[in-house]
Amino acid sequence: MNSEQTRNFQDRLECELLTVRQALLNELKQSSQKFSGELAELLEQSLPSEWLDIAAKHINPQQYPDFQRLLKLEAALCQIDIGQFGYCCDCETQLDIKDLTADPTIQRCHNCSEKSHQT
């Protein structure tokens, strides 16, 4: 993958990250549970870089699909920062560009993904 492709993926990930952060805030604000509104306020007062740590302490990630997506987006952006984006996290082979285009947050190649689902 060349640097222009990586930059395009980074732009796409950052754009989606903003959208997912807002969706998570909206989800929390619309919840009938008191702690959700309080968490939304806390997140709004915090730096975006602190959101994962804060939210993970206060919510069950399984209940919030937007939080799950936020985790994946942050991981993909971190991989770009360290030069590992586009490589399988298990076997380090280059991921298929078609797969990354479909979902730039994927972490595993087809073989390793199948193995991880078997365990």
From TrEMBL:
Renumbered zinc finger spans (dksA C4-type): 88-112
Domain of life: Bacteria
The protein's name in its UniProt record: Conjugal transfer protein TraR
Natural source organism: Pseudoalteromonas caenipelagi
